Sequence to fold (289 residues):
Amino acid sequence: MGRRKEGVWRNDQTTKAETFRRLHRGKKILILPNAWDVASARVFEEAGFPAVATSSAGVMVSLGYPDGEGIDRKEFVSAIQRIAGALSVPLSADIVRGFGRTPNEVRETVKRVLEAGAVGINIEDSVHETKQLVPAAEQVERLQVLRDLRDSHDVPFVINARTDAFLHAPGSSEDKLAEAVRRGIAYRDVGVDCIYPMGLTAAESIAAFVRALRFPINVMVRKGLPPIADLEKLGVARVSLGPSASYAAMGLLKRASIELLQRGTYDGWLDGAISYDELNSLASPKRKP
Fold:
């Protein structure tokens, strides 16, 4: 890549990062779909979403791995690069725990993800294999390193700090909420851009979390989550699909397959399907107007 071309690309990525940051503090809630490959990301862009994120589960499974960090980091970054290169809107990458045992190793992962074209990252505070939370102090140290990288980097990327306290903290639902709030405040005070309490769906708990942090909050689509209009009233800044889009797409394939095998009909394959030309167009990056 020549110096001039690299400079143009870097300026474009910086613009995307600034746009993505503003979307977290706008008047309207940011609805962020999570893609798993180029085609799904382009479908979301064509639908009109102002930004796209990746789903760790979706990306990993599409490449033949279970969710987590079993994939080689180089292969993971390559997938992010393919998706980012196909979009004209900002892309945020779910990096699981950061593919590193130390804060500096996580920092290196984020640098590579930024070089691949992402302008945001989502990082969690639990271990997939053990289903246990990492100590809050350890996660704070990682986030501090990433904050310093963001503040010194050409691309002012967005850090979405996820806590899995609702999933893995011991005790009652009240205990889990208290731990999620404690971690959320600690991560907020490090200087991240958004807090993501995974598993938070009840309106009362969302309201309590928003009141406690007074900061941009991300919730994920799950059964029981209030509709968008209610989330806006509750003060939520961002709602993401997580793996829901992958679930929906695979569910459609499963239903259509069962219909064909058991009934011998094709409605599930044809109703609402895109055309051959539309499918091919998803392989081409959308050009800016």
Remarks:
- The mean pLDDT is 95.
- Residues 3-23 form the longest helix (21 residues).
- The CA atoms of residues 125 and 283 lie 34 Å apart.
- The chain has 13 helices and eleven strands.
